[in-house]
Amino acid sequence: MILQILVPVAVGIVAVIIFVVGDRLRPESWRQDEEEAPGTLVVDLINTLFMAVAAFVVVICWQQYDNAHNHTIAESKALIDVYWTAHSLPEPEHQQIQKLVHDYTEQVVTVEWPEMDNEGRMSQSTQDTLDTLRDNVMAIQSTDDNVTDLRASAIAALEAVSQARHDRSMDADLGMPGFLYTALWFTTILLLFTAVLSGVAVSKRSLLMTALLGIVVGAAIVAIYGLDRPFSGGNIVPKDAFTSALSRFQHIT
């Protein structure tokens, strides 16, 4: 929360400093009292460039976030399929498989989610639980055709779980390309110079408007950085798909 406040304020202060220092350094010919500045075309171009870059970055970040959320939904659905399939297996496989599915799902919520947020990586202990679950399903042997079919269904569902988990692992390590952030900060700096380039005189009103501009731009940058990584930062993909699966397990049992 402190970062979300400090960055916009800091950018606002920087904008004011640039405005005041630039006013002292710019030639007299740049100063004018008319309502429209002589550099209107350049200023408009800078504004358009900044908005285009910011919009492009936000769209990409939001698409990554949406894909990551869809992967968690696919994984939770596959876990429910495994749990439901195990419900029809004979003992002791019935309880063993269901317990491992429940343990894995619970570890994703309680262990892996914080680790993805803090460390930006998946939990090895949670992966070990999934591997144990797969080994137990693969070890099922029976001459009963019904049990054989259930085993095949469980294996297919586990493949879907593994694939969705792999996608989630890629999402956790996914970030915005560096060149886009370079373009964002470059256009931000240009935007902060618009007051100097437009020839606006330093006054209480112009100082206030410049500070507000910096605050708005800083807040936009904070929001963009919060969207950058879907499983860490200020806007984390919710784990509601897995908590819903845990609730579903109770109803199946």
From TrEMBL:
Swiss-Prot/TrEMBL keywords: Membrane, Transmembrane, Transmembrane helix
Membrane-crossing segments per the record: 5-22, 42-62, 178-201, 207-227
Highest taxon listed in the record's lineage: Bacteria
Keyword Glycoprotein: no
Pfam families according to UniProt: Bestrophin-like
InterPro entries: DUF4239
Protein name (database record): DUF4239 domain-containing protein
